[in-house]
Every structure is written in C-alpha cells, then in structure tokens.
C-alpha cells in the first residue's frame, strides 16, 4: 500500500536520512523506534508529505506522492493521510465534535455527513458524552482520543502518529495503543507510529529500528 524507495534527506550539508526503503501493507501497525536524532520523525514527515525528500520516492496506493505539489498535494494529504501528534493540536475554541469535523469540512464533504461521522467516531472511542466539551475541559487522554477521531474522519488510507503517547501517563498510553489495535481489527486501519515507548512498541505488528538515518 505504502512504499518508500531510497529516501534521503539533507539539511544543508547534514545528512538526516541515508537511503531508507520501507513498505507498509493495508491494516498493518508499524512502529518506528530508535534513539533521538536517528531520523524517525523526519522519515514520518516525509511519508506523510509534510516534508519533501532530497532524493527518493514515496508511493501510496500507486500514487507518487513526491510528484505532487501545491493544492494537489494538500488535497491528497487531507483525503488519504491522517495525523496524530504528541500535543494533540486541538483548536481551543472548538468543541470535541467541531475539532473532529475540521478535516471533513476542508475536504468539502456535506456538513451533516461530517457531523454524523464525527459523532460516531467519538462514541466509538468512548467520548459520546463529551461531544460538546472544549479541549480545556478534557483530560490529556480524552484530548488524544479526539485527535485520533480527527485523524480518522476522512477514512484515510494510513494514519501517521508521531510520539502519540509521549504526553500521556502509562495507563492512558496503554489504552491508546490498545485503541490502535481495535481500530486495525474493526476498520482495517493502517498505522505508522514513531515512539520511544519500549513497553508498547512490541504490541505493533512490526517494529523498524532506525539508527543514524537508516533502518537496520
């Protein structure tokens, strides 16, 4: 489903990624682990089209993502890739339901359809009683569940998660990883997760270890 070939990334004369190849299948949960500075987040951002490689190609469902730019790239990203970050990035003035709806509205989906799907996702993730609460009224674990629902609203082919448990306590972190497993089983959702959590990474289908800009 997703394939990266010979991906390199340089900042000025500093090589960050040194020829990375990766293939991820539909319905697979893949974790990328390694020490700080190994290139994990840089790789994730390139796979998710948030950054461009210096060399190499990234393909998703037979579309060459490195061949897209501008509005075409932004539209493809919105419709086919979901993102979960360490610090949620929820809009503080919006309710949980409204935060989840945002990518669906950007995609141009009918408002009633987006709201119905957002409510369904929040209920599925155990937040049916918190739809109208703003982020400030939610716990850290609840905020991250809202972020998960937002990542899923457009039925993405793949969800990219960058240290999604890094700001959670151990109980909420474990619950979030179990949620990823449930979403994989229920919806065949694909996840690529960058994490330092050595306890939870083995729960994935496959671990990739990065060191010095390469997968080893």
From TrEMBL:
<keyword id="KW-1278">Translocase</keyword>
<keyword id="KW-0813">Transport</keyword>
<dbReference type="GO" id="GO:0005524">
    <property type="term" value="F:ATP binding"/>
</dbReference>
<comment type="similarity">
    <text>Belongs to the ABC transporter superfamily.</text>
</comment>
<dbReference type="GO" id="GO:0022857">
    <property type="term" value="F:transmembrane transporter activity"/>
</dbReference>
<keyword id="KW-0472">Membrane</keyword>
<dbReference type="InterPro" id="IPR003439">
    <property type="entry name" value="ABC_transporter-like_ATP-bd"/>
</dbReference>
<feature type="domain" description="ABC transporter">
    <location>
        <begin position="2"/>
        <end position="216"/>
    </location>
</feature>
<dbReference type="InterPro" id="IPR017911">
    <property type="entry name" value="MacB-like_ATP-bd"/>
</dbReference>
<keyword id="KW-0449">Lipoprotein</keyword>
<dbReference type="InterPro" id="IPR017871">
    <property type="entry name" value="ABC_transporter-like_CS"/>
</dbReference>
<dbReference type="InterPro" id="IPR027417">
    <property type="entry name" value="P-loop_NTPase"/>
</dbReference>
<dbReference type="InterPro" id="IPR015854">
    <property type="entry name" value="ABC_transpr_LolD-like"/>
</dbReference>
<dbReference type="GO" id="GO:0044874">
    <property type="term" value="P:lipoprotein localization to outer membrane"/>
</dbReference>
<dbReference type="GO" id="GO:0005886">
    <property type="term" value="C:plasma membrane"/>
</dbReference>
<protein>
    <submittedName>
        <fullName>Lipoprotein-releasing system ATP-binding protein</fullName>
    </submittedName>
</protein>
<keyword id="KW-1003">Cell membrane</keyword>
<keyword id="KW-0067">ATP-binding</keyword>
<dbReference type="Pfam" id="PF00005">
    <property type="entry name" value="ABC_tran"/>
</dbReference>
<dbReference type="GO" id="GO:0016887">
    <property type="term" value="F:ATP hydrolysis activity"/>
</dbReference>
<dbReference type="GO" id="GO:0089705">
    <property type="term" value="P:protein localization to outer membrane"/>
</dbReference>
<keyword id="KW-0547">Nucleotide-binding</keyword>
<dbReference type="InterPro" id="IPR003593">
    <property type="entry name" value="AAA+_ATPase"/>
</dbReference>
